[in-house]
Specification:
Elements (H helix, E strand, L loop, with lengths): L4 H12 L16 H10 L1 H21 L4 E13 L9 H9 L4 H8 L2 H11 L3 E6 L4 E3 L6 E7 L8 E6 L4 E8 L2 E8 L3 E4 L2 E7 L5 H4 L2 E6 L2 H11 E7 L4 E8 L2 H59 L4 H37 L11 H4 L9 H21 L7 H86 E9 L12 H26 L6 H7 L3 E7 L20 H16 L6 E7 L6 H14 L4 E5 L7 H5 L7 H5 L5 H4 L1 E2 L5 E4 L8 H6 L1 H11 L4 E5 L8 H8 L2 E7 L5 H14 L5 E7 L1 H4 L28 H9 L1
Parallel strand pairs: 14-21, 15-19, 15-20, 16-18, 16-19, 20-21
Antiparallel strand pairs: 1-12, 1-13, 2-3, 2-10, 4-9, 5-6, 5-10, 6-7, 8-9, 11-12, 17-18
Length: about 800
């Protein structure tokens, strides 16, 4: 019959008139530390095994994983210039500053470029990798190979192919490889070419080839450029450490620490060389451009100079504006001189008029300069002398005429002298006037010439400006290019790359991966985690009662004791065993239960004890039969009633028939005396269930059942009733109400913990204050629920010294199997 605990329990309580299940408090919840510790103790070996498994996995991982080494160097990249010491902080300093390494990302790309990779391949010979096969892993023979391979490959299928090499003699070796899916193998001699279609190899020995080296197995791989570049890209890392300090870290990882270190050192070297080469190339290209441009500009400048020189030779001038100023000044000077000559001619005319008027002075006291203003400007001393003499003669003549008449000889002499002087003066005046006129004419000619030249100067100025423009342009460009050439020459000489290796690449000591400590820690943590997970799974899957502690924790019923597992013989049905082994552990445990029963019902001489359980298979009949046997051995008269009419088993325990019994007594077909059957113990009788009736519950509720009990009380001290499971039918509850001591059987490692909730609900719903529980079929771990035995102190440890049974010798495998289960 299927067991539905909640549904059956509700039906059971409703039929008994009890409370609803929802009103019953759920007990036994929370974390059961005792069960958890029990599960943990049972899982210790599993935990140890899982930890050992984790550590073994870590060891295998370390054993079969190649260690990865990392070598790194720290570079400081900067530029400094000495051009400032030459006073060229301006243009040259800016040019050097523009070419300095301010953007380190560009330097990172340069380091990881094919330019550096190609130089690495050329200097370190990364195209051929040599390996020696070990017990588990292969090892690369970087710089330590006993042979060397030179190759010429035309067929690309030979690249990235594994060539196995085994020495078969002092100079002979066997070469095997896979080509187009077919394996090829042949024997060759060291130093002689290996020629196959599409490939030619030359394998020579190195000083490391000795007898020990010939016994090992080798192979090599010829890499193409793509494979080498991919290898470098994968393992090379270039990081900017401090942009302000211009520091870059170059790191390389490889299975071989020496190879990683050499690659980092070589990268530092070739990077410096490449940077210097690039800088020199850039400077050389700049200087080459300047030289070429200077040559072209010099030719154009020479042509412009020749044109300007031809113009100057033709026009006798280099500065037309200055010539205009000169001509203008000359015109002004000429005009000023001409005006002076005109003024002098006018003065000569005035003198000639005065001379013709026969007077030079107006008064006797007047001088010549007073009579003729401006006479000093004549600048002719002879004329001035003659005029002074004329002036004197005229003054003497006027003085004589006041005293003498004109006929006087003295007067006549003065008049003759006066005429003579005037004649001289007229001659001098005429001569001076001719000279002045000639000068004035020459000045007029020069004035006309200057005016003509002045009119032609604008055209010359335009032509000169046209010739000066290309000359000045080429001259300026030429001077600028010359300056730039000087600046770049100084920059080339004064600018040096400040490339410092702050931390050179050293030989890696410990691998970066795998880290042994971390791997073992992970293995240990994994084993512990799996062990804890196992404990958690086993704890949450542990839904059966295993010991007295769990039974007491989950139920409010008193625990009478614990019955250990009976494994002396295999029983298909419950049997009476206490009479056969009265000093065995199971007999002593049931004897302890009998003693506890005496404490509970010591005042009553006649007792009715009912034995029930939740479901079938929990040992209810076994406990009933053997408890009855133990009580009967104490000189009490005991009768066992089998009221499990649906599935009777008491008769099977005693090997009797079930033709008549309780069912036939209740329907008054047989009497009690007719149905009583005797056992091997004189004071122990039993009444089987009899044929299964259609209405067992109605028979138990009938008055005839009570009359049967009263009649049995007259002949027996203890009535033991084997009732049906209360989790399946309600008959057991009806009987438990009539019993003085209802006993509830719980089977260790079989009964569910949820069954104990039914016990608590039965106690509350039916007020079974004397309901007791027995833990049946308990193992050794379940016996020591308290730590000092089982039951209430009268358990397994009380009678150890006089047991008849002997413990079988248990082997190590059996003990381990029990421990793991």
């Amino acid at each position: 019959m299927a067991v539905n605990e909640n549904a059956e329990l509700e039906e059971l309580i409703r039929s008994a008139g009890g409370a609803e299940p929802n009103a019953v408090e759920d007990e036994g919840g929370g974390l059961d530390l005792t069960t958890l510790l029990l599960v943990a103790r049972r899982s210790i070996l599993w935990i140890i095994l899982l930890i050992a498994l984790g550590l073994s996995a870590s060891w295998l991982l370390l054993r079969y994983t190649k260690p990865v080494y990392k070598s790194s160097s720290l570079l400081k990249i900067d530029e400094k210039t000495e051009a400032g010491a030459l006073g060229l902080d301006g243009a040259v300093g800016q040019a050097v500053g523009a070419s300095s390494v301010n953007k380190l990302s560009g330097e990172v790309e340069l380091i990881k470029s094919n330019i550096i990779y190609q130089r690495l391949k050329d200097s370190l010979e990364l195209n051929v990798n040599y390996y020696v096969e070990g017990t588990v892993l292969e090892t690369e023979l970087y710089g330590a190979s006993p042979f060397k391979v030179a190759y010429k490959i035309k067929d690309p299928n030979f690249f990235n192919t594994k060539f196995a090499l085994n020495f078969t003699g002092p100079q002979q070796f066997r070469l095997s490889y896979l080509y187009l899916g077919q394996e090829r193998s042949a024997t060759y001699t060291l130093g002689q070419p290996v020629v196959v279609p599409g490939m030619e190899l030359l394998i020579t020995a190195t000083p490391l080839l000795d007898e020990g080296a010939r016994e090992k197995n080798y192979h090599f791989v010829i890499n193409d450029d793509g494979a080498v570049n991919n290898y470098l890209n994968t393992n090379l890392s270039v990081d900017i450490v401090n942009p302000d300090a211009n520091t870059i870290q170059i790191a390389f990882t490889d299975f071989n620490p020496a190879k990683a270190r050499d690659i980092v050192n070589k990268i530092d070297t070739v990077y410096l060389q490449e940077k210097l080469a690039k800088k020199q190339e850039a400077t050389a290209q700049t200087l080459q451009f300047l030289d070429k441009t200077l040559a072209e500009n010099q030719q154009q400048l020479q042509k412009a100079e020749e044109n300007l020189q031809a113009f100057v030779r033709e026009n006798k001038t280099y500065d037309v504006k200055a010539e205009v100023t000169t001509i203008t000044e000359k015109l002004a000077e000429q005009e000023e001189g001409r005006l002076k000559l005109v003024e002098k001619a006018r003065l000569l005319g005035e003198i000639s008029r005065l001379v013709d008027q026969d007077r030079l002075t107006q008064s006797e006291d007047a001088t010549l300069e007073q009579s003729i203003p401006g006479i000093a400007a004549i600048e002719d001393p002879q004329l001035t002398q003659q005029l002074s003499e004329l002036n004197g003669i005229q003054w003497n003549l006027r003085r004589l005429l006041r005293s003498y008449n004109e006929t006087t000889e003295a007067v006549k002499q003065q008049q003759a002298q006066l005429t003579y002087v005037k004649s001289n003066i007229r001659r001098l005046l005429q001569q001076n006037r001719r000279l002045l006129q000639a000068q004035i004419d020459r000045m007029n000619q020069q004035r006309a010439q200057f005016s003509a030249e002045l009119q032609t100067l604008p055209q010359k100025e335009t032509e000169l400006a046209r010739l000066r423009r290309p000359f000045e342009l080429y001259e300026k460009s030429y001077l600028m290019l010359m300056d730039k050439k000087v600046e770049f020459s100084i920059a080339k000489a004064g600018t040096t790359p400040d490339f410092q290796i702050l931390s050179p690449a050293s030989m890696p000591g410990a691998p970066i991966s795998p880290v042994r400590t971390m791997i073992y820690a992970i293995g240990l943590a994994g084993g512990i985690a799996l062990g804890l997970a196992l404990i958690a799974v086993r704890y949450f899957m542990h839904n059966t009662v295993t010991n007295v502690r769990e039974l007491e924790r989950a139920t409010s019923a008193s625990v009478l004791g614990v019955i250990p597992t009976y494994d002396k013989e295999k029983m298909t049905v419950s049997k009476l065993v206490v009479d056969k082994n009265p000093k065995s552990a199971i007999s002593e445990s049931i004897r302890s239960i009998r003693t506890n029963l005496d404490f509970i019902s010591s005042a009553k001489k006649k007792r009715l004890i009912s034995v029930t359980s939740t479901i079938s298979g929990e040992g209810k009949t076994f406990v009933t039969v053997n408890l009855g046997g133990i009580i009967a051995l104490s000189e009490q008269r005991v009768v066992i009633l089998d009221l499990d009419m649906r599935k009777p088993k008491v008769n099977l325990a005693f090997g009797a028939e079930n033709v008549k019994g309780v069912s036939t007594i209740l329907i008054e077909k047989h009497t009690i005396l007719e149905c009583i059957q005797h056992t091997s113990i004189p004071t122990l009788d039993f009444i089987s269930a009899g044929p299964t009736p259609p209405n067992p519950s109605e028979l138990i509720l009938s008055a005839k059942f009570d009359e049967m009990l009263e009649e049995l009380y007259q002949h027996y001290d203890v009535i033991l009733i084997d009732t049906p499971p209360v989790g399946l039918v309600t008959d057991g509850i009806l009987i438990m109400r009539k019993a003085d001591i209802p006993i509830y059987i719980v089977r260790a490692n079989y009964s569910k913990k949820s069954f104990l909730k039914n016990v608590n609900k039965l106690i509350r719903a039916n007020n079974f204050t004397r309901l007791c529980a027995i833990l049946n079929d308990s193992t050794a771990s379940g016996l020591y629920g308290y730590g000092y035995g089982y039951g209430y102190g009268y358990g397994y440890g009380y009678g150890q010294g006089y047991y008849e049974e002997t413990r079988p010798v248990v082997g190590l495998f059996s003990r381990l199997r029990k421990r793991f289960t």
